[in-house]
Design a protein that fits this description.
By secondary structure, the chain is of the alpha/beta class. Among the domains are: 151 residues, Alpha-Beta Plaits; 238 residues, Alpha-Beta Barrel (TIM Barrel), CATH 3.20.20.450. The chain is built from 26 helices and 30 strands. β26, α22 and β27 form a beta-alpha-beta unit. The N terminus is likely disordered. Bound molecules: ligand C2E and calcium ion (CA) (2 copies).
Length: 757
């Protein structure tokens, strides 16, 4: 009994001292009743890496929730069993790790003469293939490779006489009968006489009585026995060149199990240090344990005294504790003991405030369990509750200390991840949580399967406050469900995609300029009185090699955002000049082309001034160009803007105000800038109906502009009704599908020729 305590304590030597002692005291008077020997895999063994498996292996695991393993009971410390106890030892520790790695339960049965091996899947400790029934197959690699050491009785022999096997020639040595060692020894050292023994005890007996010069055996086993039985006369004198290899053997009916075991054992590793260290007892260790026991008794005494004083003090702090309890109830979920919705909101708020100060990000995960309702309804609420508790634990396992996991209600959880530096880390956490929750939940020996759908939002990218973030995370979670569950979805992912798409377009556009993919179309501007076409507006198109013809509304704003607008603007201007030359050549030089210039282009005066040089170089008078700008540019013009407009005007270039009526829509100040035309926006024109508000406004604008000496162009004229009204209002020019759509240069020239009568 005392020895079982020692080994128990040995295994606990990482835990705090007091715990060790309490354990010893607790165990001392009790006998552990032999229950079912089942090694259940720990479903919280999530720290174990998932191992990649073939479909066959996966299928086998799915079909076999449990393997039956035959374990010997007298092979200390490899596999053994003390009276009324479970099997223990290195092999059992290996099996426990295997269970967790393969997520399979292991049923341990005693391996003795009566064991029906036909019902056994695995034998945990075999030293040689000669020792197993034909229906079992040794795994390729042993999991233990232990040297065979030489032991002498140092009361009767000198250590120096038995450092190695050479020195034992012509002597008798004891060896364990079973195993591969006797054969190896016989082969190499014919002149050593072997005394076969059946048990270690028998060998020690021979040594003690000087019947053999030495005992050669598995170092791990013999060392353990020597310490365990405190055999003071036994001393290790050297090592043999041989090792004892311990294998597991698999029932040949299960080749999948064989490969699974190979994988698992490889993962755990040969002579796993953690396991072996657990089963080493050295002399120092024994002394340490004794000291520990003494300290333990003292500790218990001190604890008792301390308890007495604490009791007195506790009455005083009970009040405070009550307060604490109330606070706890208000802020924590009863079932999972996680923070509740209320506390989560607080924490999120704090995280946002901190993020603002440190310009970091905050991640918010909204986790909803898939299939939980089904489990809850079919297996009952107590299973459901346990599953939720376990799920809470699994989620919490992968987050940092500063993060908060909260139960939001039902099967919904939220995680606040403050102080995020990058989003990759966030994705990793999401993946880990998904992996945790997709593993089966083992509750009352039954497996239940759920998974998680997660929505992710990031502050400040996605929302400005807790409400927005939570609501968007919720939306993203629904999107994850919609996409097929068991996944996470960034609320920004669609935006992210869009932004990727935008980046791609900007990149393409840069090349488009040089690859001749851009083209200017021209839409005729018709004089309403004469129906002559002496003007056209240049409208850019992009002939994308994959996406086809792209309209300016889909890329001009990107060019503006990216700064590409300057280069693009220059190209447009150059192209318009080139085209104008062709137009003049074919239609006479009264023709004017309108060019749209983006307000952004006015931030680079150099570029704009170059245009004047280009005009001069092409020998084109300014009056053949009209620049379309928006009203916005003139509302609060910088000195540069005023100067440029001035310079342009001096060269004869005309100006028109585009999209008039959509913005500020004030006419008088336009006079200041010597604006030539106002283009009434098409939204206005398209709403024109006899005597409606737009019609009245339109008429008023026209009359007023005329008084200021400004001409009018109505754009987007699509039907004759609109045209008639515009005629009545004495609008000067019209532009719209009713007359002509924007068309390539040559088509424009044909059109004008046809209509120029
Ligand atoms: P915008 O300057 O207002 O150009 C008029 C838009 O109205 C053109 O669209 C034209 O095709 C369309 N349109 C003309 N008549 C009708 C009609 O009867 N009904 C309707 N529904 N639409 C009509 P587009 O070519 O797609 O150009 C869109 C905008 O892109 C332009 O609006 C302009 O702001 C910009 N843009 C076009 N070309 C250039 C350019 O070379 N440089 C710059 N900076 N912007 C350009
Ligand atoms: Ca325009
Ligand atoms: Ca317009």
């Amino acid at each position: 009994m005392a020895l079982s305590i020692i080994s128990t304590v040995t295994k606990l030597d990482n835990s705090p001292l007091v715990m060790n002692i309490l354990f010893v005291l607790l165990l001392f008077p009790t006998f552990q009743l032999l229950a079912d020997e089942l090694i259940e895999f720990q479903h919280n063994a999530g720290l174990q890496p998932a191992i990649p498996l073939t479909p066959n292996e996966k299928a086998w695991l799915k079909a076999h929730k449990e393997i039956k393993v035959a374990v010997k009971s007298g092979w200390m410390p490899i596999e053994f069993k003390l009276e009324n106890e479970r099997h223990r030892g290195i092999a059992v520790d290996y099996l426990t790790k295997v269970a967790n790695l393969l997520r399979i339960n292991v049923r341990v049965i005693d391996y003795n003469n009566t064991t029906n091996l036909a019902e056994v899947d695995l034998i945990s400790g075999v030293t040689s293939s000669a020792l197993i029934t034909p229906n079992f197959q040794l795994l390729n690699q042993p999991y233990l490779i232990i040297p065979n050491a030489i032991y002498i009785n140092h009361y009767t022999s000198e250590k120096s006489e038995a450092n190695n096997l050479e020195e034992l020639r012509n002597n008798k040595i004891a060896v364990f009968k079973t195993g591969s060692l006797p054969a190896k020894l016989r082969e190499t050292y014919q002149d050593i006489e072997l005394v076969d023994t059946n048990t270690a005890d028998e060998a020690f007996e021979h040594l003690k009585r000087d019947k053999v010069k030495a005992y050669v055996g598995n170092e791990l086993v013999v060392d353990y026995h020597v310490e365990y039985h405190r055999l003071n006369y036994v001393q290790k004198s050297g090592l043999s060149p041989f090792t004892s290899d311990v294998f597991m053997a698999v029932n040949a009916n299960h080749p999948e199990l064989a490969s699974l075991m190979e994988i698992a054992l490889r993962k755990i590793g040969q002579n796993n240090k953690e396991i072996l260290d657990n089963w080493k007892i050295s002399k120092n260790e024994m002394e340490r344990l004794l000291k520990l026991a003494l300290v333990g008794v003292l500790t218990v005494l001190i604890m008792l005294i301390a308890r007495f004083y604490l009791l007195k003090r506790s009455i005083r702090i009970q009040d405070a504790e009550n307060q604490q309890k109330i606070w706890h109830q208000a802020n924590f979920d009863f079932l999972t003991q996680l923070p509740n919705r209320h506390l989560l909101q607080n924490r999120l708020q704090q995280a946002i405030a901190r993020a603002d100060r440190q310009s970091l990000k905050v991640g918010l995960l909204f986790i909803d369990l898939d299939n939980f309702k089904h489990v809850n309804d079919s297996a009952g609420h107590s299973v459901g509750d346990q599953l939720l508790k376990e799920a809470a634990e699994r989620i919490t396992r992968h987050i940092r200390e500063e993060d908060t996991t909260a139960r939001f209600g039902g099967d919904e959880f939220m995680v606040v991840l403050p102080d995020l530096e990058d989003l990759q880390g966030l994705e990793k956490i999401c993946e880990k949580i998904l992996n945790e929750l997709v593993r089966p939940f083992l509750i009352s020996k039954e497996r239940f399967f759920v998974s998680a759908s997660m929505g992710v939002t990031v502050y400040p990218d996605d929302g400005r406050n807790t409400e927005e973030l939570m609501s968007f995370a919720d939306q993203a979670m629904y999107e994850a469900k919609k996409q097929g569950k068991n996944r996470y979805q960034f609320f920004t992912e669609s935006m992210q995609k869009e932004s990727n798409n935008r980046l791609a377009i900007i990149k393409d556009l840069r090349h488009a300029i040089h690859k001749n993919e851009l083209v200017l179309y021209y839409q005729p501007i018709v004089c309403l009185k004469t129906l002559k076409v002496l003007k056209a507006e240049a409208l850019i198109r992009w002939n994308h090699p994959e996406k086809g013809l792209i309209g300016p509304n889909d890329f001009i704003y990107l060019a503006e955002e990216s700064g590409l607008i300057h280069e693009l603007g220059r190209w447009i201007f150059m192209q318009a000049i080139t085209d104008l030359n062709a137009i003049h050549a074919q239609l006479g030089d009264a023709f004017q082309v309108s060019i749209n210039v983006s307000p952004y282009q006015f931030s680079n005066t150099q570029h704009l001034l170059e245009m004047i040089e280009v005009l001069k170089a092409h020998n084109i008078a300014g009056k053949h160009i009209c620049i379309e700008i928006t009203e916005r540019l003139l509302l609060e013009p910088t000195d540069e803007v005023i100067e440029i407009i001035q310079t342009f005007r001096e060269t004869g270039i005309e100006f028109s105000i585009d999209d008039f009526g959509t913005g500020y829509s004030a006419l008088p100040y336009l006079k200041k800038f010597n604006i030539d035309y106002v283009k009434i926006d098409k939204s206005f024109i398209q709403n024109l109906e006899f005597d409606n508000y737009d019609a009245i406004l339109c008429e008023a604008i026209i009359q007023m502009a005329h008084k200021l000496g400004i001409s009018l162009i109505a754009e987007g004229v699509e039907d004759n009704n609109q045209r008639k009204m515009l005629e009545e209002f004495e609008c000067d020019f019209v532009q719209g599908f009713l007359f002509a759509r924007p068309k390539p240069l040559q088509a424009l020239i044909e059109y004008v020729k046809e209509h120029a009568t």
